[in-house]
């Protein structure tokens, strides 16, 4: 086994070392493991290593940061209560380097095994069974429970570790386990103590839409009789699948243009970066460089909150923090060749542990592939009719996560012009509740009979730790502003001014498309040789709607990060989470972005971090049912005076010889043919004018 | 020859008929033709025909609208002045149906032959030659002139037909006609009378950036000595082309999934529409239907204005209206297989005429092809680990236009979920002027030594004539608004309200991402059977920056449409152009959107038209030189309660069997393989709970 790079994920043997160290350190307790993953080296030591690596000064012994594991686990007490604990273990010395135990105010994310607890507790609870028995469910249906985070406790409510269960019925008559239960929502929510493994209470749900306001109990016992199947699995559909989608194959006969080595290193078209993966953030990118020059130190999805806008209790507690309450890495799909991606694919695996700390492989959680993105640049010389055109190739690093009903697709897309696009796609199944026959609701849309899809928001936060030609950067806000007509400066009134201001102190601000706000990640110590301006990357923050909940509400208080589009902070070790480290059952954001900017740090020409908050307000359409077509948001990072010309100028404009002409009737193709020039050109070229 | 559909482009024989009718109608004059193209039938008669067509009630004789041609031409007078004239000719009866002559206040777009006039006039002008001779140009360089519209005359300035010429030098020493002259800008602009074919004057240009304000003449005679080559043609590059872009082939062994017939009809995946093409708008789409249901009556790019923000005269007149001054159809590229598109391509041609009315073929001005757009929808059942995933196939109808230095790529992308995305890409070469050595400017960026790329905006307008389940539609503004915490209605403060208001009168409003403004194209007479809401298509107007020029300026006055994002008008026959019919040399928008809304028409439940204004403020980067990587803007039209579920639910989730695994080193590929399941699933499925 070669020496791992400091950013390589921990290997199975390393996980086992960490597990064993923790087990041995608690000889008298039962340990329930939650996660074990690489403890990324501190930035100071990692940048020292990276600097040596890139200057090819790696000597032996190399100044290599220690190889350490984060270990998250519960220590089980005799009274069934559990102490959530985090340790750092040094793999080489097999020693526990640090340990911190937390109390009930700090609730870790939900372990997958806790899902089972909710299901098992309900299944064996006579109270729950009795509540269910009051519904006259159709014959052959079974109950399914989707465990959810409890959400933010109400003001004054103090709770231990709770989970709630959204309940549905599934048509089990034909035995297909993929029959869609979300089409049959049941109007009750059991609340379970996950430590004591007890049913705490059952909340009853309003089903009347508007007419009965916050009341519940308006439904008949035959609560599902007006519902109907909402299947998406092809074998269960009542409609014929399309037979006219002809194959579209992506073939790369010479293989991909990228290289993956060292477990974490990806090289493609002058880009070079490391890929990390951890249970909370999923994919992380590190040490992102173009043609040897540093651009980003670290990129990650930091948090996402999904507050629902239905005020009828207990729906106000439907608010997931999908990273802090769940974990994107934990929820990553095992991707499949030819379904999730086309072409030549490199999949990367990760490792999981169970509650005992046993290691298993999470296959294909990341895919790496290339795709074509249309014309990259083109110019036709109208004098000669000569067109020079290149296509834009992209490298995609993608991960798909399933969080109960919803799916999110996260992708980093590198291009040949020095740009990076960060893409999110939302798909999957809407979170729905029961509604009485014939009723509608201002809080959502009836997407299937008896099924109310509640209005909600998805608010994401991307964390960007820039390293534009070095680790000391400055964030600028650049705006294009009107100038009044003025006889001296602007005599005809057509001028506008571009005003750029450095962000001198940590703080937050909002997108401003009306002033064309561009956020520049700049290095003021390095000037572009042509323009004289600081080398930069541009980022236009998307002006998506911010959180709508009343600022005094628990929903807004626990997601303060969702109040602004852009946050600028000074780098602080371990400060990775926009909504704070502990979001599960939080009543207010703690240690998140609001606290980070309160330090009032200087941020000019320093180790600065940018956080981009964006999202979508999702008022469901009937078309989003039963599985919604993707909703896409893209963030663009583009070089601005970083290079001395278009970096894609050297992309060859090769004609693809496998493209063919269609004959128009869709049944066959003509052989590949030359494009004919117009018999008489419809352009008028000019002659050169010689200088006398 | 079969009877053409009323929306089929005119055929060559039809163009000749129209030409002959006009020539014969002016026996004593010289006629210089500008364009001949289909006069689209009036909406009343066309909708009658379409209704019959779709109800399969086409009888013989069919109530077919008359087949007519628009003929635009100049009648040349003895004094060389020209009367711009428009006639409509009935092809069947060979009669001139109508004629209108215009005076100098109404200047038509620039004919391609007028480009040549500018070049020829300058070439033969001793005054121009003398002005050039004052520059000490490098040996072997020649002068190139890019003819441009004159722009808006200054207040009080009355002119006949003027064009201006942007002047550059080209290194002709190696004889390559594609050497890039834009890297050598010359600081003078000749102004030419296109009718009299005379040089009117030469404007001298400021080259000092800021220091000398509006002054010119600060440059040395060696005005290009600090410039350097800016080539993009591969044979002229001083850098090596990349050799690591391995082929990515799109193969469709069973042919495309679309059908093109009748010259104009395209059918694909339940979509069915007609494609038109005319000299001004380029591609137009008509009678767009999904699964037999009408969605749009007509879609077109209506106008684009490109005002420059450099106040130094005469740069204030750099403002192109690329549709009204030039014409997207006239400037369409002849697309090439394997360069402009991959896969199986169907190209559509158009026809051009020259000044004599002779017809020639414009080959491949439209391309039609399919592309893959990643995951379309996906859900993984966490209980069974079963993932159902479909890919999103798109049908693209694309056109690329070259307007002197710039390129624009316009594409309509249909998807399988009933959505339509309208895409624009800007690429090509920046419009640049000379700047003295070592200087910078607040009005632009130095992108190459001696080359100042001026700040500018591109403001587009898309015209959308909706027909959502019929021709009577209502536009709604739907906003998501916060609700205060309230003990009765919103006890926990998490609720928000969705407020929808019909646009009752013609008018304009702006994008509003902070309230999640969605524009709904609705038919209030047809209700969704599930939700009970009006069937609709949703459109989120992009909140791009509007025109920055002072509202009192000529630049802003002639582009009033660029002051608002969304305009709603009542349908009026022939009202197609956001900036008015005549933009060339306009001093104010006439007959454009500002005038249209002044009619104060009722727009509810009526034949209503939506106009979307969007664009980009382009403050150039060094990376935009010498040819800029594409800048993309997308507009999305998505069904909202138009269907009774996700219309892409019937897209089969077929695994693509040609995708293969990469081995990671980029040199070869493993054979196509099954994806292994994790040895121990990292998900925890729950058991069904039977009902007692």
From TrEMBL, chains A, B:
Q: What class of enzyme is it?
A: oxidoreductase
The residue range of the signal peptide is: none
Q: Does the keyword Metal-binding apply?
A: yes
**PTM comment for this protein?**
Topaquinone (TPQ) is generated by copper-dependent autoxidation of a specific tyrosyl residue.
Cofactors required: Cu cation
Report what the protein is called.
Answer: Amine oxidase
Q: Which residues carry this modification: 2',4',5'-topaquinone?
A: 406
Cofactor binding, per record: Contains 1 topaquinone per subunit.
Copper amine oxidase N2-terminal domain residues are: 5-95
Q: State the UniProt keywords alphabetically.
A: Copper, Disulfide bond, Metal-binding, Oxidoreductase, TPQ
Residue numbers annotated as active site = 322, 406
- Enzyme Commission no: 1.4.3.-
GO BP of this protein:
amine metabolic process
Query: Is the Disulfide bond keyword given for this protein?
Result: yes
Q: Species name for this entry?
A: Polytolypa hystricis (strain UAMH7299)
**Recorded family membership:** Belongs to the copper/topaquinone oxidase family.
Assembly, in brief, is: Homodimer.
Give one GO molecular function term.
primary methylamine oxidase activity
Give every Copper amine oxidase catalytic domain span.
Answer: 248-649
């Amino acid at each position: 086994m070669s020496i791992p790079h400091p950013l390589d994920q921990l290997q199975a043997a390393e996980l086992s070392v960490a597990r064993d160290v923790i087990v041995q350190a608690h000889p008298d307790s039962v340990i329930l493991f939650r996660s074990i993953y690489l403890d990324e080296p501190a930035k100071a030591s990692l940048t020292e290593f990276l600097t040596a690596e890139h200057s090819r000064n790696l000597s032996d012994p190399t100044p290599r940061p220690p190889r350490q594991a984060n270990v998250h686990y519960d220590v089980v007490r005799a009274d069934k209560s559990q102490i959530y604990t985090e340790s750092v273990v040094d793999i080489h010395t097999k020693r526990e380097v640090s340990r911190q135990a937390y109390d009930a105010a700090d609730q870790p994310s939900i372990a997958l095994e806790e899902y089972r607890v909710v299901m098992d507790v309900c299944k064996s609870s006579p109270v729950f069974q009795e509540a269910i028995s009051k519904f006259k469910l159709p014959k052959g249906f079974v109950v399914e429970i989707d465990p959810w985070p409890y959400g933010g406790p109400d003001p004054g409510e103090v709770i231990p570790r709770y989970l709630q269960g959204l309940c549905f019925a599934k048509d089990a008559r034909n035995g297909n386990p993929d029959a869609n239960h979300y089409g049959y929502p049941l109007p009750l929510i059991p609340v379970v103590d996950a430590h004591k493994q007890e049913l705490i209470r059952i909340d009853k749900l309003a089903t009347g839409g508007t007419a009965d306001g916050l009341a519940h109990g308006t439904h008949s016992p035959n609560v599902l009789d007006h519902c109907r199947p909402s299947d998406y699995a092809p074998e269960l559909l009542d409609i014929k699948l399309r037979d006219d989608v002809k194959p579209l194959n992506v073939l790369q006969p010479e293989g991909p243009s990228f290289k993956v080595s060292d477990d974490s290193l990806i090289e493609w078209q002058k880009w070079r970066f490391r890929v990390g993966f951890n249970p909370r953030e999923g994919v992380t990118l590190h040490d992102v460089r173009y043609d040897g020059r540093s651009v980003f130190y670290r990129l990650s999805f930091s948090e996402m909150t999904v507050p629902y806008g239905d005020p009828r209790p207990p729906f106000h507690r439907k608010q997931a923090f999908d990273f802090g309450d769940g974990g994107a890495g934990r929820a990553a799909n095992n991707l499949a060749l030819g379904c999730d991606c086309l072409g030549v694919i490199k999949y990367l695996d990760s490792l999981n542990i169970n509650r005992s700390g046993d290691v298993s492989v999470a296959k294909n959680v990341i895919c790496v592939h290339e795709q074509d993105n249309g014309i990259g640049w083109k110019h036709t010389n109208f004098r000669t009719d000569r067109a020079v055109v290149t296509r834009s190739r992209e490298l995609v690093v993608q991960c798909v996560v399933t969080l109960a009903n919803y799916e999110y697709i996260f992708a980093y897309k590198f291009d040949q012009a020095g740009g990076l696009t960060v893409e999110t796609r939302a798909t999957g199944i809407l979170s729905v509740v029961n509604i009485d026959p014939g009723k509608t609701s201002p809080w959502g849309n009836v997407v299937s009979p008896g099924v109310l899809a509640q209005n909600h928001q998805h608010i994401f936060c991307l964390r960007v730790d820039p390293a534009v030609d070095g680790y000391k950067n400055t964030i600028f806000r650049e705006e294009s502003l009107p100038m009044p007509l003025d006889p001296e400066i602007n005599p005809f009134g057509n001028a506008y001014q571009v005003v750029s201001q450095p962000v001198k102190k940590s703080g937050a601000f909002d997108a401003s498309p009306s002033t064309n706000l561009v956020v520049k990640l700049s290095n003021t110590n390095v000037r572009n040789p042509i323009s004289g301006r600081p080398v930069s990357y541009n980022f236009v923050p998307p002006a998506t709607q911010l959180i709508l909940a009343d600022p005094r509400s628990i929903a807004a208080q626990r997601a303060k990060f969702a109040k602004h589009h852009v946050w600028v902070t000074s780098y602080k070790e371990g400060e990775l989470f926009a909504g704070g480290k502990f979001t599960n059952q939080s009543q207010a954001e703690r240690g998140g972005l609001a606290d980070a900017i309160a330090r009032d740090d200087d941020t000019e020409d320093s180790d600065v971090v940018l956080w981009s908050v964006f999202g979508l307000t999702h008022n469901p359409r009937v078309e989003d049912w039963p599985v919604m077509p993707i909703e896409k948001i893209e963030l663009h990072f583009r070089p601005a005076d970083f290079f001395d010309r278009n970096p894609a100028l050297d992309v060859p404009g090769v004609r693809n010889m496998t493209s063919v002409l269609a004959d128009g009737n869709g049944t066959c193709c003509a052989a590949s043919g030359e494009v004919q020039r117009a018999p008489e050109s419809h352009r008028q070229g000019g002659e050169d004018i010689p200088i006398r």
